[in-house]
Amino acid sequence: MCITWLWADVSILAHIELGNIHLNVKFVLRKMNFTFGLVVSMIVNRLRELRESKMNDSDTPELWTQEGIAKHLGVTRQTIISMEKGTYNPSLALAFKLANLFGVKIEDIFEYRGEKNES
Questions:
Q1: Which of 20, 28, 59, 61 is the most buried (most CB within 10 A)?
Q2: Phi and psi of 70, rounded to 5°?
Q3: What average pLDDT is seen over the chain?
Q4: How far is 43 from 75, CA to CA, in rounded Å?
Q5: Which is it for the CA torsion 56, 57, 58, 64, positive or negative?
Q6: What's the pLDDT at 13?
Q7: Which residues of 106-118 are buried (b: 16+ CB within 10 A; e: fewer)?
């Protein structure tokens, strides 16, 4: 999200003489610009898909449950659940641990999706 405020104050000092009357006047011109932008970006993952595939193909499916993966990685089951839902993005270290556990590259689990003009 991008919010930009720009305040511009311009002061004009004037001395006005009207016969015997002398006035010092200060005019303040104020301009405000406001810009609001929203950048939509997110990290999506294939964690649930990969975990369920490993559970189906494994002789020891209990190792590939949310609880089994959590124990192996030293995190809580809720962390795994939150990652699968996409409400939590892991640290880089945890992302590497997950990739090593599944025998894949980080990019095979996580994908960054931002605006089209972002890289």
A1: 61
A2: -60, -45
A3: 82
A4: 20
A5: negative
A6: 74
A7: eeebbeeeeeeee
Domains and CATH numbers, the chain: 2-37 (no CATH), 42-113 (1.10.260.40)
User: Per-residue DSSP letters for 59-113?
Assistant: S-GGGGSHHHHHHHHTS-HHHHHHHHHTS-PPPHHHHHHHHHHHTS-HHHHEEEE
pLDDT digits (tens, 9 = 90+) for 4-52: 555 556 677 777 777 777 777 776 666 655 555 555 558 899 999 999 9
**Phi and psi (nearest 5°) for 14?**
-130, 140
Counted residue by residue, the chain has a size of 119
Q: Which residues of 23-56 are buried (b: 16+ CB within 10 A; e: fewer)?
A: eeeeeeeeeeeeeeeeeeeebebebeebbeebbe
